[in-house]
Amino acid sequence: MRRRTRYALSGAIVLAAAAIGGGVAVGVASNDDDEAPITGPALERAGEAALEHTGGGRVTDTEVGDEDSYYEVEVTLDDGSQVDVQLDEDFRVVGATPDREDDEGDADDS
């Protein structure tokens, strides 16, 4: 049992390192149970399109079937601010807005 656990953990670390080297997050969990994250090849394409649009940063959340577009990619910029990039089914940017949390005290945008 220990050997299996060790191999599984080693494999997960190798996959994570490979993903980081690729520049796009592999599995980005969504904060809301109703929102499905982007997965597979679509995640890489959506992340690349969003990062190109923002001029850098890192992908910190994704969603398929967002109310505003087909894909939504949240990008955290180097200054800590966040931008929600809206993409259509062909990974074209159809909008982008600063990500502002709701008024429940989740973020301080001042």
Write a brief caption for the model.
The chain has 110 residues and is an alpha+beta fold.
Q: From the 3D coordinates, which CATH architecture would you assign? A: 2-Layer Sandwich
In spatial order, strands of the major sheet run 1-2-3-4
Briefly note the CATH topology name: SHC Adaptor Protein
The Rg value, from CA coordinates, equals 16 Å
Count of discrete alpha- or pi-helical segments spanning 4 or more residues:
2
Structural class: alpha+beta
* Name of the top-level CATH class: Alpha Beta
Relative strand content: 15-25%
In angstroms, what separates the terminal alpha carbons?
A: 51 Å
Average predicted local confidence, pLDDT = 75
Overview of the structural elements:
The protein is an alpha+beta fold and 110 residues long. It has a single domain (2-98), classed as SHC Adaptor Protein, CATH 3.30.505.20. It is built from two helices and four strands. Strands 1-2-3-4 form a four-stranded antiparallel beta sheet, covered by helices on one side. The longest helix has 21 residues, at 2-22. It is globular, with a radius of gyration of 16 Å. Residues 1-31 and 103-110 have low confidence and may be disordered.
